[in-house]
Structure formats: C-alpha cells, structure tokens
Amino acid sequence: GAGVSQSPSNKVTEKGKDVELRCDPISGHTALYWYRQRLGQGLEFLIYFQGNSAPDKSGLPSDRFSAERTGESVSTLTIQRTQQEDSAVYLCASATPPADTQYFGPGTRLTVL
Amino acid sequence: TQLLEQSPQFLSIQEGENLTVYCNSSSVFSSLQWYRQEPGEGPVLLVTVVTGGEVKKLKRLTFQFGDARKDSSLHITAAQPGDTGLYLCAGEDQAGTALIFGKGTTLSVSS
Asked: Is the pLDDT of residue A48 over 70?
C-alpha cells in the first residue's frame, strides 16, 4: 500500500497495562507525527520526528508516553500504566518537508477499561 | 497559545442546502489548512490557503482566508450526502513543526 498504515486498528486494555501502537509511514517521508484525538475533539499534537534530528516531544502529556522511530521508517508510540483518560484515537501522519501536506493513517482506537 | 475555534460544532442539513463553516483565531497563521475526516479514517487534506484574502474553489467547496490571516471559512454549495464528515481547520504552530487543529465541525447531510 502507498498510504500510512497503523496497527492495531483497535486496542482494548485494562487500566495500568502498557500498550504499544505502531505506525508505518509512506516510504521516503522523513517527517512523522503522532496526534491524539479524543471523542468530539480536534487533533492534539504529541510528538514529531524529522530524519535523524532529536524528536520534538513537546506535546507528550506525561512521562507515561514515549515514542521511538528507527531511521525514517516505523515508529512506535508506547503508553505505560494506561489510564482511562488515555482512551482516544491515536493518529500518525507522515510528510516530506518542506511540503506542508501531512498524510494521515487511519488511526488506532485505544479503549482503557 | 495559538488556538483555532471552529463553528458551528454540529450542522445537520438537507441535501441541496448551502452551508458555511468558520475557523477563527486571535493569532496570525502563515497558512491554514482544511481537512475532512470520515469515521474510522484519518483526516484528508482538502486545501491550503496561504495569502491573506485568498479564495480557493474545489468543485462545490469555496475556501477563504481572511485578510489578516487569522480566520478562514469553508462554504459548501448544494450539499450532498457524500459531504458528510468532520471538517477540521489547522495551522502550523509557531515552531513550524506540528499542526494546531480546531475541534472540528461535524456535518451531516440527509437525502
């Protein structure tokens, strides 16, 4: 496929468990973004990767959230000790700077019980 | 803090009606983008407006960027059920890295 893919599409977990969400960007896209979308809300920026530069982590809501990216490929977003307020759709987008078009994946819907 | 306020939050209309969605801020943005998001999918870019006062047309959709680059509007003529979805406006943050999104307008068009 040529688009951004994310897995799993849905994840249900119990409060206190750790979860790992995966994003496969479009091949060749050096920029990768993670956003969170709570029900009825817009998208909230979490973290940004650009090539081999240090990631911009300014949007991460707490130290329970972390993300990694290997080179210009796959990224994983990890949430430790999940809380009910972490329930949301987590969206990943990739882009090729300096173009400003971000291409979004379908998202992972996380439900914390 | 840069914020984008969208109105209305919800809009339910009949096929064939016209509608306008607004995106307002107290901050100046170098550009604003409009996205459409369908359930279970990520947002898809519709248009980017860059110049103050700019008007862009995409078939039945007309996008306008305010002269002061603080606001934008999306006008849909003769809405169709296929226009149903969440419409989001977004602008680059001051660092120029990520996008700041409004909360969106949920549009429902009935036939």
From this structure: yes
